[in-house]
Amino acid sequence: MWFLSLFTVVGSGLLLGLSFFPGLLEQVPRKYSFAIGGLYIGFALAITLRHLFQARAEGIRRQRIAACLVLLSLVLTPLVLASHIPRRLLFQQYQGDFEALLPDAPPPADASTVPLNADFALYWVDHWGSDRRGGVYFRTLATGQKGSKSGSYGFAHRPNADGSPFGDEDYEIHHLMGDWYTFSSSDK
Predict the structure, then answer these.
(1) Where do the domains of the chain lie?
(2) Tens digits of per-residue pLDDT, 48-82?
(3) Does the model's pTM come out above 0.70?
């Protein structure tokens, strides 16, 4: 049981750490992440419940503590990931740096992106752009290779609901705080 609790806590910590950055977890196709996550949760839940409800024996107290730790991780990790709490907390540290650039944003346009190369310690913004309504997009991660579909991930200030300067396909935004959102889209 100790190995399962160690594996679950370390895995949860890894997932929460990766969730600080837009695009790292989003690159895993949802059907695979749900399938693998569901199988692991089912397996861990079955073993955990067995240890919680088995007859009293020597060493059972440590097993119950480990089982409770696994249950806590299995419940809290998906909730924290779905609410973007780690990303929100880290972004608060850099929000002022992003806001300082807003007055110098590229002029509003549909597909206008320009290199920025801004280094905010943990976040590197390679390109930025504005949409027609004045939403400003900061790309912190670009994926894909020559000839394949590529994606853009990052932060957006007052984005629109229809698309980004980096592309409209598979476009999603998630609210962080105030006028700030994370975005993901497929490049044009």
Answers:
(1) 2-83, 87-186
(2) 888 777 755 555 777 788 888 889 998 999 999 98
(3) yes
